Amino acid sequence: MPVNPRPEKLKEKISILPDTPGCYMYLDASGTVIYVGKAVNLKRRVSSYFNRHHDSVRTNILVRNIADMRYIVVPTEQDALNLENSLIKEYKPRYNVLLKDDKSYPWIVVTKEHFPRVFLTRERIKDGSKYFGPYTNAGVAKAVLNLIRELYPVRTCRHAITPEYIAKGKGRLCLEYHLKNCMGCCIGKIQESAYAEMINHVKQILRGETQELLDYLRNEMTNLSQQLRFEEAQMLKEKYQLIERYQSKSVIVSQTLDDIDIFGYDDDTSDVYINYMHVRCGAIVRSVTLEYKRRLDETIPQLLSYAMAEISQRFSTVYDEVLVATMPETEIPGTTYTIPQRGDRKKLLEVSEHNARQYKADTLKMMEKHNPEQRVQRTLERMKSDFRLSELPVHIECFDNSNIQGTNPVASCVVFRNAKPAKRDYRHFNIKTVVGPDDFASMKEVLTRRYTRLMEEGEDLPQLIVVDGGKGQLSAAVEALDDMGLRGTIAVVGIAKRLEEIYFPGDSVPLYIDKNSESLRIVQQLRDEAHRFGITHHRDKRSKSQTTSELDNIKGVGAKTRETLLQHFKSVKRLKMATIDDISALIGTARAKTVYNALHSNTEK
Which superkingdom does the taxonomy of this entry point to (predicted)? Predict the structure, then answer.
């Protein structure tokens, strides 16, 4: 059954669509482009939107808003992918996946001049210059540039130095020449061919071909030493050591790998982070992470295709061999795709995936630094998903029982609001109706008392209850909620201590949450806090029971009198050995008789 009654104009356009690759654009009633897509077969792809009901709610909403359509025919599917990427950037349609990381990165450029310059830039101009990068970290780019300038005195001035300029004698030596940071190109102190050789060495460093450059410098050092030109050999040795130190700081994966591109990803439901790395001569020479915001439940193969097109357009990349964890939706002709299972290629893919995860973590930390509430919201949403809740667990309560060999049974209730302890709301419970060490019955009593009172006082109920224990304690909690008519109103789970298993009502098989999950961390914190709070109360109660004496049960003897007697006689045993006159001297004759008779009547018994 169609999900959208199509206007006649739209029906006509769809009916005449060609069976060729291309891009299509959907427009709403106001003429705004709301979605851009690509297709191997335009007619088949566009028709599929209108001839069925889609599983995705957002796709159905998109279809209801389509009022018109445009399309562009291209020769191949790869051309369609590239065009789609450009159209999304131009129109920014609301239903398309959003590339959030669209910032410019610094490059190191070697200009196309008679005496080339080398400098940092964020703009790529098509003037024949050679660009190296991009560098996602500007500090790394500056460090590489400083290394180059320490090794080779390339010019930094902006003069258009040509053979004609030098012949006219218009150049003047500047301070950079006297500081030995320039070879005096402007007055012809270095030949253009010698300067070009120096620039070739610079390009080798920027391409990551440091081993070839080291081999060259080693041979030159040997030749100069044999010619007894030791000062020149020493200068080359210093350059050799600088490059060697630089190479040791590079990420060398394997000397056998060359010109490989890697795409690793981290899928975070709504956001997907795709890392791109390029390896040359076994070293990682480029790494960029793109962040995509899902709009219509796009798959990883789709997003990989988008990322490959984006990298290709942004950096003029031509792929030869590409390492991926899963195949992209659109394969680029002439490109070899490998899903590595072991060895150096597998390690490379793992490095890329690690970079994607790290980028996600850094992005979230930065966002949460500026907006602390965002971390709380993310944690609550994660818990809502992990614990199958219908609403965010803003208010959580956790219960724990404490007793030693059945004595002094107590329970504790700790409260978390917005994933943080609300200590003012913590409560202790002395077990009243349960005889002996029965944790299940104790749990039922405590929950009944707690939520009966909250309902009577009109207080808010929690969204989630956590009970410390496995299936037995959870069943007791569920019975209590059933009796109060709260089953289905409040979610409840149990956490078993041994393996940190999470039990749900009615499920015999527990859930094992990722040990690094924030949801598990919050539940563990709840459980530990409930245990600490309960143990403290139990210890206080036990200490109090151990300090009671026979004096507490004598009518007419108050706390002050008991304190006076115990301070003087030090113990009840010594008090019993005292005469009635000794006691009368402290508390008077009448109370002395009462105390003396009570203690000695108990002794006789």
Answer: Bacteria
- Per-residue pLDDT tens for 414-457? 999 988 899 899 988 888 887 766 778 888 898 999 999 999 88
Q: What pLDDT sits at residue 548?
A: 47
Burial of 158 (0-12, 13-18, 19+ CB in 10 A): exposed
CATH class for the domain made up of 260-367? alpha beta
Q: Tell me the CA distances in angstroms from 84 to 10, 66, 72, 88, one per residue in order.
A: 21, 18, 10, 6
User: Do 328 and 305 form a contact (C-beta atoms < 8 A)?
Assistant: yes
Q: Strand 22-27: give its sheet, edge to edge.
A: 33-39, 22-27, 68-73
Per the listing, tokens 């959030």 go with 100
Looking from the CA of 203 toward its CB, the CA atoms found within 13 Å total 14
Q: Are 517 and 379 in contact (CB under 8 A)?
A: no
CA gap 205, 252 in Å, rounded? 14
Q: What is the mean pLDDT of residues 80-98?
A: 79
Residues 8-96, CATH architecture: 3-Layer(aba) Sandwich (3.40)
Half-sphere exposure of 65 (CA within 13 A, CB side): 19
Domain 383-543 listed as CATH 3.30.420.340: yes
Q: What is the pLDDT of residues 306-346, one digit of tens each?
A: 899 888 887 778 888 999 999 998 888 888 999 999 887 88
- pTM of the predicted structure, to 2 decimals: 0.48
Local confidence band at 1 (pLDDT 50, 70, 90 cut-offs):
very low
Could you say which of 1.25.40.850, 3.40.640.10, 2.40.50.140, 1.10.150.20 is the CATH number of the domain covering 550-604? 1.10.150.20
Q: In this model, does residue 543 exceed pLDDT 60?
A: no
